[in-house]
Structure formats: C-alpha cells, structure tokens
C-alpha cells in the first residue's frame, strides 16, 4: 500500500459573469490579479497541488463561463465534481439572487449521489471595491442564505487584494476531501459452469 | 545494446518516437477533421479560453514571447512553478482559426512560441530540477507514489514503468514526444499518461474530457482529429476515455487498435466492473486500483512498435520439434482435466503449448495482454504467484485466478482457474508439470530454440527437392552460425506468415540489414500500414500488394488461408520476389507442425 495516496479533486467554479471567478482562481493559483476584464469562454482549467495535513493532493479547477449561453455545457462539465464554488459580487444584488439558480442548476446537472450534503462553498467577492461603500449585499444576508442551504461555508473575498482567497480554497479542498469515500472493489469471479454469464451479484464498490 | 539502454538516459531508447523536433507549423488539414467537428464549429465560440498572458506570473524571462504568440494557447502554461498550470479549450475566434488552435494547441504544440523560444529559456532551468527529481525517484523514496514497480535496471531492456514522470504539458520535452497515450475518466480526471505526471496533467486531461463531452452533447462522437502531422485518436469506453496523440504516421486503424489494447489491459487488471463504480459515483477515482501497474502499461505501449501480435491479432509459437511440443501439451492436458480453465506454457511472448477446457476459447489478444502483464510485472519472476486477472475477450465482467510460475528465466507457466481457493492444487499441478518437462528435456529444447532462432531466412530451401520437412536438422548441421544471417535469396530480409485458421503467425528472424531495434520498428510500422490497407473495409479486400520505397520492397499476399508479409532489399526484382514468396509459403507448410500449435482444441471462437 502506498502510504501517501494522492487525491485529485475536481472543483467547479460557478457564478454570474463578471463576479470575478477567473480572478479568484488566478489569485489563488498564480498570486496575480489583472484589473482588465476578459470574459471566459466555455471553460478554463487550472491545476494546483496542495499539501495539507501531510497529504498531497491536486485541485483540478474548472473555471466556467458565467454567461447563460454556455450553460448547455453543464452536464459535460459538472460530472464527477468533488466540490462546487458559488461566487457572487457583493456590489451586485442580481449576482447574489442568482446563487440559488446556480446551485440548483448544478445539482440537477451533476446529479451527485447525496445532493443534500454536496460540498458547496460561497464566496462574496469584490469586498475591496470603493472601500466597501458600493456594497449592496450585506454579510448577514449572505450568511443567512448559506445557513438555509445546509450551512454552506461562506467567505468574503477580494481577488484583487488576495483577501481570504487562500483560506477559502483551503476549506474548498477540505470539504471536497471529506466527501471522498473509500470503498472495496470486488468484481465477480467467473462461474465456469456458465461461462458466458457472470453471476448476478454486483460488485460491492 | 539492451543493457546499454537501461543504464543511460532514456532518450536514446526511442529517439524516433520521442523527439519529433519539427519546425513550427501552421498548416491545418481541415478535410481530415472528423465530420462531427464541423457540427460543433458553429458552437465553437462557446468553448475557448483565455489568452496566455501576463497575468500569469511567470518570473521566467520568456514573457515577451508569450505576448507575441496568440496561437500558443491550449497547451501553454506557466513557466512559474510546477504546482500550477493552466490549459483550456480553443479560442473564441473565427472557425478557421479554431482549427488552427487545435493544431497549435492540442496536437502539434509546435506553433510559434513553444518549441524554440519558450523551450530554450524555460527548459534549461527546469532541466536541472528534473535531474534532482529523477534521482530521488531512483532512490526509491517516491517510486511508490505513482505505483511504479521498482526494478533491477540491469535486467530491464528498456526503462520500465513511468518514464519522464517529471514532465507536464508545459515541458518542451513532453510536447516533443512523438506518441502520447492518455486515459481519463468521464469527469476529466486523469487515470494514466504515458509521459508526465498524471496529476500535473489534470488541466490537460480536463481539456480532453471537455472536447469529448462537448461533441457528445451534440449527439455525435469524435474519433479523429488530424492536425498537421499529428493525429488525435479518441476511444470512448463507457466512463473511460482513451486518447492517443501521435505524429508517427501510423494509420488511424492501428492507433485505434492500440487504444483498444490499452483498454483491454486495464480490463485485464480490473474487469469492467469499474463501470459500475462510475455509475454509482461519477467522482470515482480508479488510479489507486491501478497502483503498481505503470510497468505493465509502458511495456504494452513499447510492444506496439515491436510486437506484430499487436496488429495481427494472432499469437506466435516458439518453433519446436513436433514431439517436444506434444510432450508439453500432454502434461498440460493432464492438469487441465483437474479443473484448470487454461494451462499455458510460454517462453517470453511465444507459446510453447496451451490447453483449455472444452468450449473455452482463448482469444489471441487476451493471450497477448496476459503475457504482457506477466512479463512486465517483476514480482512474478521472483516467486510463484496467484493473482486475479480478467480475460477481456473471454469475459470482461469477471475475474479468473492466475497461478504464475517461472520455470526458468524466460519460460513461465500460467494456470487459470475459476476458484480462488485453488492455489495449493495449482502448485501441485505445477510441480508435476515441472518434473515432467525437465525429465523429457522440454525446457532445454525451449532454451535452445530461443537462443538459436531457428526460422532463419538464409535457411530457406533453394532447391525444392532438397526440402527436409524439419527446421531442426538444419540447425544441427550448422550450429555455429549467428542468429541473423546475411539475408535470404533475392534480397529477402524478413517475413511474417499468419495462418488465418490457427490465429497464429510466424515471424522469421531478421536479416542483418534490419538487426537494429530502430530498423525493426520501422519495418513493423511498414507492415502495420500494409495490414491496415489490406484490411481497409472501404476499398478492400485486396489479394496482393507490391510496394517499393527507399527502405524495402514489401510484398503482401492475402488468401483465405493465410496472410504473408515479406520485406526485400529495395532493389529486389518483382518477379523474383513473388517466386520467393511462393517458396516461403511452401517452406512454412513443410515445417508447420514445428512452428504452429496444431489441433489445439481451445480455439473454437
């Protein structure tokens, strides 16, 4: 048995266009921020290796496009996700209101085995803008919504200043790891008396 | 030569495959892109990805190049740290350009910016880092992580297990490899990559999944993308996706066949029960289940260019005197009657004898995959083993159990059973078999045949009246000759004869002009192309083909009973070559009970 088994976590980032999904990812992976807005088209993939509690694992981050016209890609992209990050802009009410749609859409398309307990993380981004004066969604309101959806962890972030980004992704990774289950792989053995038909009992995995 | 290779840097081994080193190219072969891609072109604006750029922090000094090259996209990534990379899908530009992106980005990552500039500056520094990593691995500390079997390198003919594990899609060396194989899950999680570290290639893997799923979403399937010299071949097997990216100019059918074998090897190790795991849980990660099998896959891929069984879908026997093979068959039959599904005695990749339960049939591909599994797993050599394995063409859903024991350095016995409790019974069987084989001198005969290489083209009977009917008298008369002769009559260099009824082939020894590995590989590739063109369903079936190029004259002859592939000196005369081929066929017929396993009951498929 390899003592240090490596794990790969697929993380999907969702949210309205312009809330800063790509910037958050860039800040996290590359420690860089660009004030210029460039729309992501379709999806963008980043990989980051993380060491946590003596375990080495890899985050495979799927940065998706926020525009509605790309949402037909959902099934293909969301399949097998280990964690989903919902992002909104604290300065744009609509992006917060849409969180519910993003969450539901994800659950429908990815159809995880245990939707109630699927690990989400919510990020309220752009807290740096205008010193917080243009903010329209209060932290209290956001936390209330997260609580109502099964206590989703919540972070207020600034991709620009790097505030809370590292911390948020740490929780993302941790929660993704939590849902990882170890199961026993036990395929059938051939029944020689009836070689063409495997026995009916399924595999126990 | 073999020992040479194992001790030095791996690049000398397969230079043909590893360093394409072509010029940057922008040409796009739009015609050859599968139709399914046309369908998605309209929508292509919807997948793309951001330009490579300055907001990526590369503290390396090759920045100015990045800004120059728009087309260095998909496979591009950051020079910065090995822990972070980015890849993406296509661009949002015009359709025409999209294909160019596939070219530059996916298949032939040699468009401006990557090969020369970025490489030269980036790789010098990373080069030294790489050596450090390799050293650590050689000391065995991190070997277990990627599951590679640690082997005594002095024994290995090539570098076993994962090679170039330090590379990823940002490495110039990685991009220059001529033939990549990837396996990934339908959620885009990497399962296997021939070169480079799977986890570091997670972004690349996601890109491949996105392409496949995107086309699938449109109700279509992507089979092949041709981009300049590169072919990207896709094979979808339920939740498992297999991709080959190659610029070796092998035919599409061959590459797809290789992906099928790669999948088969995976099934041999795990059965198709993995499908159910993915059904239950799309997040399922099967890499831990494949732990320790890197050597099996690298050996498999290695054999794609050096073992004709991989494209002939036939197996080969070790030439043996008829009585010797009969003796081996008899003792195997004895144990088969005690509940053994298949009993196989092999020497390297060649069958000595084989016996099976009635009605049970063993497909040549299964035999090839099983032999590869046994030969590439070092632990089988050191002790008797009992391991679950699945024969994909026999029953892909369930396991059999294989008792494996090496009787000498090359010769091994495989006993397959359906009972997981049968180890001690099979051990007794093996002891019985071993006793009989050594008493009847079979093992010595096997060793002799192996070392002498009996089917030599310079022994091709010249005078039909002098036919002897046995290969072995010849050798007794001329025991001192070297294995590779000077070549046969009329410039015959080599031949392969495949018997259609027996599902067996026999390959002659190589004449000296093709004694090197690279030459043999080139010849096999040529045979492979012949095979593909002779079996092309669209235009075939053909009966004969005569082809002359700068390397050889190739002659292929297909009848209901056999297929003959022969290589001659490039100056060979056509009429003479045909005459020689007739003589080869006659020769094969004369000695067929020594080169083939005849009347083997299990082959009833």
TrEMBL record, chain A:
Q: Which UniProt keywords apply?
A: GTP-binding, Lipoprotein, Membrane, Methylation, Nucleotide-binding, Prenylation, Protein transport, Transport
What Gene Ontology molecular-function terms does this entry list? GTP binding; GTPase activity
Localization (cell): Endomembrane system
A GO CC term assigned to this protein in UniProt: endomembrane system
One Gene Ontology term from the biological process aspect of the record: protein transport
Q: Domain of life of the organism in this record? A: Eukaryota
Q: Which CDD domains match?
A: Rab7
State one Pfam family annotation. Ras
> What SUPFAM superfamilies does the record point to?
P-loop containing nucleoside triphosphate hydrolases
Q: What InterPro entries does its record include?
A: P-loop_NTPase, Small_GTP-bd, Small_GTPase
Asked whether the keyword Lipoprotein is assigned, the reply is: yes
Membrane topology, as annotated, equals: Lipid-anchor
State whether keyword GTP-binding applies: yes
Q: Which family does it belong to?
A: Belongs to the small GTPase superfamily. Rab family.
Matching PANTHER family: RAB FAMILY (PTHR47981), RAS-RELATED PROTEIN RABG3F (PTHR47981:SF4)
The name of this protein is Rab7
What organism is the protein native to?
Deinandra increscens subsp. villosa
UniProtKB/TrEMBL annotation, chain B:
InterPro entries membership: FUZ/MON1/HPS1_longin_1, FUZ/MON1/HPS1_longin_2, FUZ/MON1/HPS1_longin_3, Mon1
One short Pfam name that applies is Fuz_longin_2
Chain ranges of the FUZ/MON1/HPS1 third Longin domain: 491-591
Its name, as the record gives it, is Vacuolar fusion protein MON1 homolog
Q: Which family does it belong to?
A: Belongs to the MON1/SAND family.
**Which GO biological process annotations does it have?**
protein targeting to vacuole; vesicle-mediated transport
Domain of life, per UniProt, equals: Eukaryota
Q: Which residues form the FUZ/MON1/HPS1 first Longin domain?
A: 179-300
The scientific name of the source species is Deinandra increscens subsp. villosa
**Where does this protein have compositionally biased stretches of type Polar residues?**
42-51
The taxonomic lineage of its organism, from the top, reads: Eukaryota, Viridiplantae, Streptophyta, Embryophyta, Tracheophyta
């Amino acid at each position: 048995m390899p003592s240090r088994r490596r794990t790969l976590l697929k993380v999907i980032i969702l949210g309205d266009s312009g809330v800063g999904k790509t910037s958050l990812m860039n800040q996290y992976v590359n420690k860089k921020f660009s004030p210029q807005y460039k729309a992501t088209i379709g999806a963008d993939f980043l990989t980051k290796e993380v060491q946590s509690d003596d375990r080495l694992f890899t985050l495979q981050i799927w940065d998706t496009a926020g525009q509605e016209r790309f949402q037909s890609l959902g099934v293909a992209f969301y399949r097998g996700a280990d964690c989903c990050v919902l992002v909104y802009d604290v300065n744009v009410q609509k992006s917060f209101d849409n969180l519910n749609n993003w969450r539901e859409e994800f659950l429908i398309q990815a159809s995880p085995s245990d939707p109630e307990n699927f690990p989400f993380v919510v990020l309220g981004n752009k807290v740096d803008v205008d010193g917080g004066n243009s903010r329209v969604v209060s932290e209290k309101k956001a936390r209330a919504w997260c609580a109502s959806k099964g206590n989703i962890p919540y972070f207020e972030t600034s991709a620009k200043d790097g505030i809370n980004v590292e911390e948020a992704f740490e929780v993302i990774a941790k929660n993704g790891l939590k849902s990882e289950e170890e199961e026993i792989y036990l395929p059938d053995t051939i029944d020689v008396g009836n070689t063409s038909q495997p026995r009916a009992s399924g595999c126990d995995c | 030569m073999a020992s040479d290779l194992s001790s030095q840097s791996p690049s000398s081994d397969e230079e043909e495959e590893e360093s394409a080193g072509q010029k940057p190219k922008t040409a796009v072969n739009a015609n050859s892109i599968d139709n399914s891609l046309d369908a998605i072109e309209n929508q292509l604006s919807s997948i793309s990805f951001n330009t490579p750029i300055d907001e990526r922090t590369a503290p390396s000094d090759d920045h100015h190049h990045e800004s120059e090259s728009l087309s260095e996209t998909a496979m591009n990534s950051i020079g910065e740290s090995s822990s972070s990379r980015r890849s993406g899908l296509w661009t949002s530009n015009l359709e025409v350009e999209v294909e160019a992106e596939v070219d530059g980005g996916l298949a032939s990552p040699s468009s401006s910016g990557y090969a020369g500039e970025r490489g030269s500056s980036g790789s010098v520094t990373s080069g030294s880092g790489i050596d450090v990593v390799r050293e650590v691995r050689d000391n065995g500390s991190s070997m277990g992580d990627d599951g590679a079997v640690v082997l005594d390198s002095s024994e290995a003919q090539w570098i076993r297990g994962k090679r170039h594990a330090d590379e990823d899609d940002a490495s110039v060396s990685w991009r220059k490899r001529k033939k990549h194989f990837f396996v990934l899950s339908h959620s885009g999680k990497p399962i296997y990559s021939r070169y480079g570290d799977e986890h570091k290639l997670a972004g690349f893997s996601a890109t491949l999944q996105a392409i496949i799923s995107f086309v699938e979403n449109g109700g279509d399937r992507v089979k092949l993308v041709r981009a300049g010299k590169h072919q990207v071949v896709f094979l979808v097997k339920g939740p498992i996706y297999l991709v080959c990216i190659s610029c070796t100019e092998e035919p599409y059918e061959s590459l797809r066949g290789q992906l099928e074998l790669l999948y088969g090897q995976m099934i041999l190790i795990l059965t198709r029960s993995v499908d159910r795991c993915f059904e239950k849980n799309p997040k399922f990660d099967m890499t831990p289940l494949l732990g320790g099998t890197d050597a099996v896959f690298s050996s498999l891929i290695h054999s794609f260019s050096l073992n004709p069984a991989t494209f002939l879908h036939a197996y080969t026997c070790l030439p043996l005197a008829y009585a010797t093979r009969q003796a081996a068959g008899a003792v195997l039959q004895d144990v088969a009657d005690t509940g053994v599904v298949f009993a196989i005695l092999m020497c390297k990749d060649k069958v000595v004898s084989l016996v099976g339960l009635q009605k049970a049939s063993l497909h040549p591909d299964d035999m090839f995959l099983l032999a590869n599994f046994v030969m590439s797993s070092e632990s089988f050599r050191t002790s008797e083993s009992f391991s679950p394995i699945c024969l994909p063409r026999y029953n892909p859903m369930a396991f059999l159990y294989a008792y494996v024991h090496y009787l000498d350095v090359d010769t091994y016995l495989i006993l397959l059973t359906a009972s997981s409790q049968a180890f001690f019974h099979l051990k007794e069987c093996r002891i019985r078999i071993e006793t009989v084989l050594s008493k009847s001198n079979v093992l010595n005969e096997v060793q002799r045949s192996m070392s002498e290489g009996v089917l030599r083209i310079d022994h091709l009977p010249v005078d039909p009246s002098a036919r002897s009917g046995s290969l072995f008298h010849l050798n007794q008369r001329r025991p001192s000759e070297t294995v590779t002769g000077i070549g046969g009559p009329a410039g015959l260099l080599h031949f392969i004869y495949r018997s259609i009824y027996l599902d067996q082939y026999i390959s002659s020894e190589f004449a000296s002009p093709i004694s090197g590995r690279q030459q043999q590989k080139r010849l096999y590739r040529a045979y492979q192309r012949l095979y593909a063109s002779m079996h092309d369903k669209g235009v075939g079936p053909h009966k004969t083909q005569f082809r002359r190029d700068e390397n050889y004259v190739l002659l292929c002859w297909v009848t209901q009973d056999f297929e003959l592939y022969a290589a001659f000196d490039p100056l060979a005369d056509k009429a003479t070559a045909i005459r020689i081929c007739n003589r080869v066929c006659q020769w094969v017929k004369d000695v067929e009970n020594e080169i083939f396993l005849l009347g083997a009951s299990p082959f009833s498929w």
